[in-house]
Amino acid sequence: MLEITCNDRLGKKVRVKCNPDDTVGDLKKLIAAQTGTKWDKIVLKKWYTTFKDHIQLQDYEIHDGMNIELYYQ
C-alpha cells in the first residue's frame, strides 16, 4: 500500500492511499473524490514528466511517500 502526497501549490494538499498496480487514472479518481473536482480535469506531473492514465504506478517508479504535482486543465 502506497501513500502519495499530491500538492497543487494553491493550498490543497491531498494524501491518497493506493496500490502499486493501480493505474494513474485510478489515482486521479481517488484524488478527485477527495478534492471535489472531475478526474479528467486533473493532470499529474513530476518535474517535466506528465503521467499518462493507462500506465501503472509501479512502471513510473512511484513509491511510498512520494510527492506529485497536481494541475488542473
Describe the structure.
This protein has 1 helix and 5 strands, in the order ββαβββ. The chain is an alpha+beta fold and 73 residues long. A 5-stranded mixed sheet has the order 2-1-5-3-4, covered by helices on one side. The radius of gyration is 11 Å and the shape is globular. Residues 2-73 form the Ubiquitin-like domain.
Strand order of the largest sheet: 2-1-5-3-4
Helix proportion of residues, in percent? 10-25%
| Tally of separate domains | 1
Shape, per Cα inertia axes: globular
Chain-averaged pLDDT: 92
Query: Structural class, from helix and strand content?
Result: alpha+beta
Distance between the termini: 29 Å
CATH class: Alpha Beta
What's the helix-strand series?
Answer: EEHEEE
CATH architecture assignment:
Roll
Major sheet description: 5 strands, mixed
Low-confidence stretches: none
What radius of gyration results from the CA coordinates?
11 Å
CATH homologous superfamily classification: Phosphatidylinositol 3-kinase Catalytic Subunit, Chain A, domain 1
Total count of helical runs of at least 4 residues? 1
Total strands: the figure is 5
CATH fold name: Ubiquitin-like (UB roll)
State which percent range the strand residues make up: 25-35%
Keywords: Ubl conjugation pathway
Pfam family, one: ubiquitin
InterPro entries: Hub1/Ubl5, Ubiquitin-like_dom, Ubiquitin-like_domsf
Protein name: Ubiquitin-like protein 5
